[in-house]
Fold:
Amino acid sequence: MQIEEPARRIPLAYDADVVVVGAGPGGFAAARQAARMGARVVLVERFDMPGGVHTSGLQGAAGPGVGGIHTELMERFAKAGYIYTVTQDTLPDWAGNPLSHYERRHKPDAAFTRASFNPEGAGSLMAQLLEEAGVTALYGTSFVDAVVEEAPGNSRIRAIIVENASGRQAIGGRVFVEGSGTGELAARAGVRYVRGGGAQPKTADWDGIDRPIPGGLLWIMDNIDFAATVRHQKSAKDPTLSKLIAEADAAGDLPPGLYRPRMGGSNVYGEAYIGHPTLDMSPMNADGTFIIWQNVPYEWALHMDDCAEDEARAKRALRGFIDAEARFLKKYVPGFENAHLSNIGRFVGIRDGRHPIGEHVFSLDDVLSDRRFPDPVTTPMTKTFFWDEYRKHTFEVPYRSFLPKGISNMLLTGASLSFTYDTIFMVMRNFPWCTQTGEIAGFAAARCIEKGVTPKELEWTAPYF
Ligand SMILES: Cc1cc2nc3c(=O)[nH]c(=O)nc-3n(C[C@H](O)[C@H](O)[C@H](O)COP(=O)(O)OP(=O)(O)OC[C@H]3O[C@@H](n4cnc5c(N)ncnc54)[C@H](O)[C@@H]3O)c2cc1C
Structure:
């Protein structure tokens, strides 16, 4: 059944040069860069701070600056005391520990450095950086639709529709930046996209269901005595806590699905994020404080970006898992007796949402065939490709992967770039790169305003980074 939504007139609350949807690393950097170059920028963000998965989602992975706004962020976070770093000296028995999210494959006693930033502090600083640049940042504001002036093959967005404390409003602009992390602006504007999971190879044992790489809800527990946990792992010969998990399970203290085996199989991309056999954590914020991963069960094939029931199911289930895991840890695991659940992310982060189709869809083939482009956005980058047996490759990304097909005045950023699943998911969706893509898009948007052209008309010949 359907009902008709009556047409209505709504206020054009802002008319900007550049309108950015979403303030994750991509949208944040786009807004900051465009505003610094003199454009009038309005940014809409549904939560109360910029940073996306890395602040509102608690991710907080820090690392050496890769240049531009990313380096600025790392320096500002460090200066404010928001970076926390551990090494093999300060956290012994961490490398090679099966509970470690990032270092579990290391050799025991291997040298490592793990840095994170405090998500709440970093988000507040990022909000200040937007203000300093002169961005009009509307928090608590949800993008809900796009008003598109149709022209065959070359439509343009006239305005976006948002909802916030003032009700339903329109925001007009000349260039629109996709920073939602899930291709939502692109989709509402009619850009074609590949749905999450839809790009996985259809092998002989494929059962007909497209399963996105699972999203996750991150949470933080503090006051953990990790040395006591290590003593237990060693003395009870229980490195993965499987004996304690079995004990809790037998006592009815674990909900079905909380600890689940990793999956293999030819139609999944390795075991990454697929399964949750034991506690999965990483040090963050302060001694004794750890971020802990809860991922959506892969088998459920949830499309949280475009299905409200799936999103609600993920939120319910993961909060339930987190509650049960926190109580299990305190009751059964030595070192956690006095720990507290201190924080849960504001949203279930989506790893594999819509992949909008751009003027160039950047693919693994571009990487493996060493393709060079007339419009590179950076000088050649070298990265390790999980999907090519962890080999390193040097490659370029073209500006055309920032341009969605069919819309003339939109730029893509971050996890919404026009990339295939095997390149974006496995390699090109990290915080530094997403921040770089935003800065590139912000630069392009401001240039378009200066020159009176659309992003598609902008001549791009030299790398930005
Ligand atoms: C669970 C998880 C763990 C990850 N772990 C790591 C890691 O360890 N290291 C790493 O480097 N990367 C990691 N990533 C990847 C990385 O976080 C993302 O690829 C990156 O944040 C994408 O940046 P983005 O700017 O495109 O989008 P996001 O970070 O998703 O930000 C999008 C922003 O847009 C806002 N938004 C969305 N829709 C609307 C709307 N309708 N209206 C208003 N605002 C909206 C959101 O609230 C959010 O603030 C992880 C991702 C996930 C999901």
About this structure: The chain has a mean pLDDT of 94. Residues 22-27, 44-47, 52-54, 56, 59, 61, 142-143, 179-181, 184, 215-216, 218, 349-351, 413-416, 429-431, 434 surround flavin-adenine dinucleotide (CB under 6 Å).
